[in-house]
Write a structure and sequence with these properties.
- The chain has ten helices and 15 strands.
- It has helices spanning about 1-35, 40-50, 80-90, 110-115, 130, 175-180, 195-200, 215-220, 245-265, 265-275; strands spanning about 55-60, 60-65, 65-70, 75, 100, 120, 135, 140-145, 145-150, 165-170, 185-190, 210, 225-230, 235-240, 240-245.
- The N and C termini lie far apart (about 80 Å).
- A hairpin with a 6-residue loop joins strand 3 and strand 4.
- It has about 280 residues and is an alpha/beta fold.
- The chain binds glutamic acid (GLU).
- Glutamic acid binds near residues 122, 125, 170, 175 and 211.
Length: about 280
Amino acid sequence: MKQRIQWKVSMLLLVSLFLILAGCGGGTDGGSSNAGTGGGEEATALEAIKERGKLIIGVKNDTKLFGLKNTATGEIEGFDVDVAKAIAKQIFGDESKVEFKEVTSKTRIPLLQNGEIDMIVATMTITEERKQQVDFSEVYFEAGQSLLVRTDSPITGIDSLDASTKVLAVKGSTSTKNIREKAPDATVLEFENYQDAFNGLKANKGDALTTDNAILLGMQQQDPSFHLVGGNFTDEPYGIAVKKGNEALLQAVNDTLTELHSSGEYDTLYEQWFGTKPE
Ligand code: GLU
């Protein structure tokens, strides 16, 4: 009798072990399609894009120098847009095989996750936190966070910000997080996008606008009654983001960047948009 019970318990344990192992196996498979260790899944993303005949790329529409809609032509123009066109050229041999969709700092990762866009080329800093959600290309642009103020403002840099200052920033950006850390006493007012934030600054809703120097440079060009102060207080290396596991697509992006550098096209584009050679 005792032996039979022991035998039954052993069988039960064996069956449980088998079920646990089977469960783990399923999890690993599911994970690999997300994490991108399986070759099949990645090939599918790039192949589906090729099948569709065009890329769908998320870019900013309100950010001068990177992605700004030209109201006269309806075209979106900027450094990010030109990099995006180069990726289309790499994949299709034709830079016009791309559709642009507007993203903001807040919407870009959700739009990538739900499949509405194939990639993000939108002033996006590579961070450890974001790497949990998306895969990034090599760094394609080096920015740093700074401040934009009225030319007659007493603010000279990050040290001028105190409990009496109101700083404008954009939701979902690293800028919002960084400014709370670097100027914890200042009040931070968050906007949906850079157009709204800049309009807020012009309407005196705050004393300074904070984000990457290159974005602020575009605003300074749009309205010279504002200027950048104090230099950079963070490093913001930009990367192009794809859905996790889309390795073949990411490879095509990195190949494009390598090609842009080796052909000298990168420097030409950089100079065209920023007026200087890259450092
Ligand atoms: N590069 C920063 C970021 O990724 C600020 C620019 C932006 O909001 O896109 O958050």
